[in-house]
Amino acid sequence: MKKNLHYLLGLLLALVLLWELTVWGSVGDLPGAGAPIRRSISREAPLVMAFVVVGEVLDGAVPLLHRIGLDAAEAAFSPGFERISQDPDVATSLLFENTWNATHRFIKLGVWAVPVLLLLFLIAYARRPRQVRMMR
Fold first, then answer.
1. Mean of the pLDDT values across residues 22-46?
2. Number of neighbours of residue 94 by Cβ within 10 angstroms
3. Residue 28: CB partners within 8 Å, gap ≥ 6?
């Protein structure tokens, strides 16, 4: 297991990162609440803003990912749309302090899972067993 741990962590990191980029790249196109959420994120959440910027490029290149991300973001954030449209300045606080459903919880967990998985991957990669070659 230790021999392949860095592969497993790398795959998990890639999947979580792809999910986060897909969802956050689509958040700006949410009907009614997308623009206030994006403005609030740009002021208050630099890691999520990086996901938004890279995700928009990815979602623009692959329309299927944009549709999947938009559906997931709408399912996760729709309980807060009314409050976000009333006071757009608290959008980031609403998104990260409340948990409205399981999809929302999964998206919030993924934001912090990416740097943790990256760190674990780097540690596992540095500690992977190496092949020893003897001189003949």
1. 85
2. 19
3. 34, 35, 37, 38, 52, 56
